[in-house]
Inverse folding.
């Protein structure tokens, strides 16, 4: 089974491209969902989060308090590292199990792993190639401020918590430029998909 990492940076439009690929028939694993599942109420992941960050890390409904955790890690590299050391092994384990299941069932000849932080967690070494959804930095900053209502400082804080989109561009095997129209993006995705079918 051929594995493709689908990634981007915050506010580059990866969800848009993911939906386009699904419309074309691609099999996509949502790694954000995997990340949520490993810290769902009652999981060992959530127990580890509470042990590391205290009772405030768990919301009243028993789920991880993402706002609280987000505020902690965006401004504190040590806290961010502590969170990653808990989450990443659990996420990788869950993905391994899912990929093994798909291979056993022969479900698909190719699978996309929709992973926003693929390069940050060094998962690129576990896939056969990487497709990057790209926009220039200025477009990324503008879209993030508009989409989330962030100040420039708040947006920059989140952008700089990831590897720069230009650095990712230099590492990826395929780049989808999402700074133009939706039709422009759709045509790039369709072309890459068709070439992939021919290769496989």
């Amino acid at each position: 089974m051929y594995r493709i990492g689908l990634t981007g940076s915050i506010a580059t439009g990866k969800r848009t491209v993911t939906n386009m690929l699904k419309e074309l028939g691609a099999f996509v694993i949502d790694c954000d969902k995997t990340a949520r599942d490993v810290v769902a109420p009652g999981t060992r992941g959530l127990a580890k989060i509470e042990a590391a960050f205290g009772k405030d890390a768990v919301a009243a409904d028993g789920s991880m308090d993402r706002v609280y955790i987000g505020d902690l890690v965006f401004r504190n590299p040590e806290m961010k590292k502590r969170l990653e050391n808990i989450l990443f092994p659990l996420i990788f384990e869950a993905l391994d199990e899912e990929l093994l299941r798909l291979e056993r069932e022969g479900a698909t000849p190719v699978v996309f792993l929709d992973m926003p932080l693929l390069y940050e967690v060094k998962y690129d070494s576990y896939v056969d190639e990487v497709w990057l959804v790209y926009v220039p930095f200025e477009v990324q900053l503008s879209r993030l401020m508009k989409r989330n209502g962030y100040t420039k400082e708040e947006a920059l804080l989140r952008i700089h918590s990831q590897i720069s989109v230009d650095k990712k561009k230099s590492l990826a095997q395929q780049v989808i430029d999402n700074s133009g129209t939706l039709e422009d993006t759709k045509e790039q995705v369709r072309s890459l998909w068709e070439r992939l079918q021919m290769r496989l």
Observations:
- The first helix runs from residue 14 to 23.
- The domain at 2-26+108-199 is CATH 3.40.50.300 (Rossmann fold).
- The CA atoms of residues 99 and 111 lie 9 Å apart.
- The radius of gyration is 18 Å.
